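Sample intake sheet
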Amino acid sequence: MSRAGTQSLDLRAAAVRDAKRLVVKVGSAVLSKGNIGLHPPTLERICRELSLLREEGRQIVLVSSGAILAGMGRLSLGERPGSIPLKQAAAAVGQSLLMRHYEEAFDPYGQRVAQLLLTQEDFRSRPRYLNARNTLFTLLHLGVLPIINENDTVSVEEIRFGDNDNLSVLVATLVGADLLVILTDLDGLYTADPRKDPSASLISQVPRRSAELSFWAADSGTGLGTGGMVTKVEAARRAAASGIPTIVANGLVEGILARILRGEAVGTLFQASSSRMRSRKRWLAFASQPLGRITVDNGARDALVHGGKSLLPSGVVSATGGFEGGEVVSLCNTDGEEFARGVANYDAEQVERIKGLKSAQIEEALGTKPFDEVVHRDNLVILE
């Protein structure tokens, strides 16, 4: 094997060697095996593989699509519903059926399971986020395998994740996973569409910084799921940016999870950032919902991004959005591009009154000075 090939396997081994807490996402294309409705043998095989990983002492959180898929089979629908009411009806019919399949598939291995149905609001709200986190940690401590899906029966556009690839990243950051595995119906990320181009080659690894990487990504080809390779790439990059290595691999291949955990060269590994975000900063970066915007000048941006500084009023250009102190805001450059996110110490009207001032002038402008900073460094995260 070449030196580059050896280094590649070493990187894989390092990414999975000490992975004790895994988030595994399985999509509808895998659970259906390309058909309408669930494919029980495939679901049962995945449950067997997950149970074997649990026997090795690993903690597993499963993010599973399939409620709408199961409902389609039960309702004899020939194609994925187009309207939201019909999708929600199919999800309502299918969710209990999906969980019944999982309970029956895990039962021979003595593996207890729990169902969690989440919406964006469970992540955007800090108290609800922490509540979900505590629930998951308690289940893992009790040896229960959580199975998570979007709450399709009540989700509307404003609170939808859009796809379970995105949800899997939020769950991985929520529980501080050591590894995220996204199972799809392809072997990984390719240079071109492998279904159409025989010269397409599998990309074994995606470096932390890969802006120039040329790859193929398209919407879901089966018509059964909501995602596609493009959503998996976006999800994997977000997880990697938070310090969680991510592998996209073929969930239809027998023994794929064991091979991944042995460090074999299967699927596509997205290398993680060298620094791992703390829990609060993961929430700020990936789950919070900014309620306003603070525009800063170039000097302040450089101090935040490269100097590790807090945002002082002297660097503020403007504040918009009607946010209150203690709420999350986007920090933007003068071109309107968000480069950071943080918790504001002052409300929008106060920030407007103190913008451009030195910290020593805050009390004169507001009549009080509870903070020197508009956003403190401890409550701020730089976005990649």
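Comment: The first strand starts at residue 21 and ends at 26. Confidence is low (pLDDT under 50) at residues 220-227.
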